[in-house]
Amino acid sequence: MTIPFFAPDLFESDRQVLLDLVHEIGTAPAQKFLLGEHTARFEDALRTSLGAADVVACSSGTSALTLVLHAMGVGPGDEVVVPAYGCAPLANSVVGLGATPVFADIDPWTMVADPDRVEQAITARTRAIMPAHMFSVMAGMPRMREIARQHGVRLVEDSAVAQGGVLDGRPAGTWGEAGVFSFVQVKTFGTAGEGGAVITMDPELGQAVRSLRNHGQGERFVYRRTGYNSRFDEVLAAFQLHRLPGFPALLERRARIADYYTERFAPLREQGVLAPPAGRNGRCYYVYSLLADDRDALQRYLAARGIESHVYYPQPLPHQAAFARFAPAGRSWPHAASAARRQLAIPVHPCLTDAQVEHIAAAVRAYAGARENTKERSR
Ligand SMILES: *Cc1c(COP(=O)(O)O)cnc(C)c1O
User: Fold this and answer.
1) Is the pLDDT of residue 374 over 90?
2) Is the CB of 186 inside a 6 Å radius of any atom of ligand 1?
3) Which strands sit side by side in the sheet containing 79-83, from one edge to the other?
């Protein structure tokens, strides 16, 4: 009996709803499967709940980043400052537009971009900074806003993992000039397929993104700009709209599991296992990440006790072959490199039972204790 890292029955409770929606939309007289009334209603529900000027649903979180950067005019010759540790879309979205990603090192504990490093990376060519919320912790957005304002650069908030997170009373996605969500299966509001959204406080930016997601179309078959195919699926829009009221309870379950872990793991700090910071402000609980001095040993220990865990990002982005040409010789990202060696994510999905959560916490504590004893003996 293994405890899976991801929820094993994501859509079981909504199965009939999903099947009914496929039938209903598939047989409706309108025969509209993309960007129809369901998408419009889903966008509206998100916009209202966030207090945003506009929300534009699109085909993925990655695509959402591309649409925002394109709408901001990012292109060849421009630089965009992104975290050195994170997922590929952070750099790919920039490279895809012909611009240059400039990597900023991270905070060694929270693993989000360090605002001082972001500021140091700004040059005359910088068009935007793009901090990302990571795992359980939101980036330091108040400082990022300040930096963007002082240096006259655009602020894109990669909030793909942080839907429902709140920092200082302000929802994730609304801190930047534009933020993004991802509805890919693994995210906290993941769905049965691909999807994403752009959230913006700027109605003009929203209009530009709206047009770009559908080939740059304004009125039907009139194109003032070149764009993309980044449309949103009507069945998924209706499905997400149905699931939206239940989302806060799922997040709360994740938060409680995370609170319990963090409390249980607090004493392990001296034993080489570091939990994320406690508290609920600026948290998102997409993934619960430990930092362990001997990460691979911890992973083996957990696997032997039937607990699946994941290593996210075994290399910093500038160390990846794909982005090596954007890693200037002599630059290093020591905190990103350290996170890549030490990070280990344990299950935090809302389907976990209390008994499973307790088993996981006990196993991590037992590992840290056993490790401490071995060290004592060898002293
Ligand atoms: C998942 C993710 C994305 C991309 O979202 P997709 O929907 O998978 O394209 C972008 N940024 C971050 C930080 C993510 O975790």
Assistant:
1) no
2) no
3) 54-58, 196-200, 178-182, 154-157, 126-129, 79-83, 100-104
